[in-house]
């Protein structure tokens, strides 16, 4: 990953770096890796996330069909 600092504006470059890290999911992964997660807990979390995504897609589809 590379961030270009323009006109010695480090604050703007830092903001761009944080945005890229957020988009890549680095912060989420760091949070998940702070503590060990049992495989069964991981499967349950991923399954819950999949259900949530499916419900959201259904809601959006229902809104679009109205």
UniProtKB/TrEMBL annotation:
Any one biological process term the GO annotation gives: translation
GO MF term (any one): structural constituent of ribosome
Key words of the record: Ribonucleoprotein, Ribosomal protein
GO cellular component, one term: ribosome
Gene3D superfamilies the record matches: Ribosomal protein S8
PROSITE patterns, alphabetized: RIBOSOMAL_S21 (PS01181)
Region: Disordered, residue numbers: 32-66
Pfam families linked to this entry: Ribosomal_S21
InterPro entries named among the record's database cross-references: Ribosomal_bS21 (IPR001911), Ribosomal_bS21_CS (IPR018278), Ribosomal_bS21_sf (IPR038380)
Compositionally biased spans, kind Basic and acidic residues: 32-48
Domain of life the protein comes from: Bacteria
UniProt cross-references to HAMAP family, sorted A to Z: Ribosomal_bS21
Family, similarity comment: Belongs to the bacterial ribosomal protein bS21 family.
Protein name: Small ribosomal subunit protein bS21
Species the sequence originates in: Croceibacterium mercuriale
